[in-house]
Q: What sequence folds into this?
């Protein structure tokens, strides 16, 4: 008889940590993993469900942008969730594409181009930190 495969937890979250991060492949499937990571971390920190839902949307948009635009330059992105205070959480996605972040003005019939507007609407503040080797796009959410 074959032994059942051992299912390993997707994330190893360390109790008491104020920040959790994971490196993910520059692949569209990584967006779902980024969302699950954010939800798991906020649940671990016992954050309100509505904060987790907003953070899930924000990381989805940031990861999608990074994967879409950095794909040819890098094989991975880094997703980080940081407890910035008792009432704040920061979600960030780092990529290796040094090109500047562009916030598009989507027309009424455009299928895309609204991601950063959504991030701005769901977060208390957001921004982009440029590095010589790439950039880190972050959003801070009130919880």
A:
């Amino acid at each position: 008889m074959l032994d059942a495969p051992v299912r390993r937890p997707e994330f190893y979250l360390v109790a008491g940590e104020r920040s959790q991060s994971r490196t993910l492949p520059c692949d569209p499937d990584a967006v779902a993993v980024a969302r699950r990571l954010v939800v798991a971390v906020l649940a671990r920190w016992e954050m309100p469900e509505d904060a987790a839902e907003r953070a899930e949307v924000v990381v989805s948009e940031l990861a999608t942008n990074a994967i879409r635009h950095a794909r040819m330059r890098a094989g991975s992105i880094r997703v980080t969730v940081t407890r910035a205070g008792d009432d704040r959480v920061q979600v960030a996605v780092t990529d290796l594409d040094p090109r500047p972040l562009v916030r598009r003005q989507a027309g009424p019939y455009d299928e895309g181009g609204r991601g950063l507007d959504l991030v701005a609407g769901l977060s208390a503040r957001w921004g982009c930190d440029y590095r010589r080797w790439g950039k880190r796009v972050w959003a801070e959410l009130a919880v």
User: Anything to note?
Assistant: The mean pLDDT is 85. Residues 21-103+112-142 form a domain with the Heat Shock Protein 90 fold (CATH 3.30.565.10). DSSP finds three helices and five strands in the chain. The first strand starts at residue 19 and ends at 25.
